[in-house]
Design brief:
With 201 residues, this protein is α+β, with helices and mostly antiparallel strands. The chain is built from 8 helices and 10 strands. The chain has one domain (31-198): Glutaredoxin, CATH 3.40.30. The strands form 3 sheets. The chain has a 6-stranded mixed beta sheet. Strand 5, helix 4 (98-108) and strand 6 form a beta-alpha-beta unit. Helix 3 runs parallel beside helix 8 (188-198).
């Protein structure tokens, strides 16, 4: 689901669905939510404060344990220089704790900013949060050695639908892409094209 345009709608936090397909990302034209997130040193900031520094490409990913997410983060490096030339910053958001994010950074050699949303505040505010059922949590842990609670330090079992939000320097959302199929991701070329369109280029 991709949207490019301008629609003004008030921001509110939605109830967390139990299926990724039922998540409802906030719309183009809204202001980036002021949700608390933490940098790799544990320092608190907000998504709105980050967005109002410069035009921003926000990437929501499920965690460093997700191979599809890691490949997507690496893929986006192809667009990084082009995005920077346009004046953008790339900001990734994960439910992982900062210590887990550092492992991802080391493994993928990423140079852009990644913030921890372990409380799920940003996921909820952006409308991309969904809650894993107990069976899936157990299957992840027992069959695949993926411990969601250890990664996030929380017991809420909330993950984001992989999503891309592009905002201007005022923090207004200009583009939204969100796909409940975690195997399907927006290419670096598509992200760069959307970023250019958001600036009217």
């Amino acid at each position: 689901m991709a949207v490019l345009g301008s629609v003004g709608v008030a921001t509110f936090v939605q109830a967390v669905p139990t299926k990724a397909e039922d998540a409802k990302p906030i719309a183009v034209g809204k202001l980036i939510p002021e949700s608390k997130v933490f940098d790799l040193e544990g320092k608190e900031t907000t998504t709105l404060k980050i967005a109002q520094a410069k035009p921003t490409v926000f990437i929501f990913y499920r965690g460093g344990w997700c191979p599809f997410c890691n490949r997507h983060l690496a893929e986006l490096r192809k667009a990084e220089s082009g995005l920077k030339e346009l004046g953008y910053q790339i900001v990734a958001l994960s439910p992982d704790l900062p210590v887990e994010i550092k492992k991802t950074l080391g493994k993928e050699e990423l140079s852009y900013s990644i913030y921890s949303d372990s409380s799920a505040a940003a996921m909820k505010a952006f409308g991309v949060a969904f809650e894993l059922d107990a069976t899936t949590v157990s299957t992840y842990k027992n069959n695949y050695k993926i411990d969601i609670e250890k990664s996030s330090g929380q017991t809420h079992h909330i993950l984001p639908v992989p999503s891309v939000f592009i905002s201007d320097a005022k923090g207004t959302i200009k583009f939204v892409h969100s796909n409940p199929d975690y195997r399907e991701r927006l290419t670096s070329e598509a992200v760069l094209e959307a970023a250019q369109s958001a600036l009217g280029r």
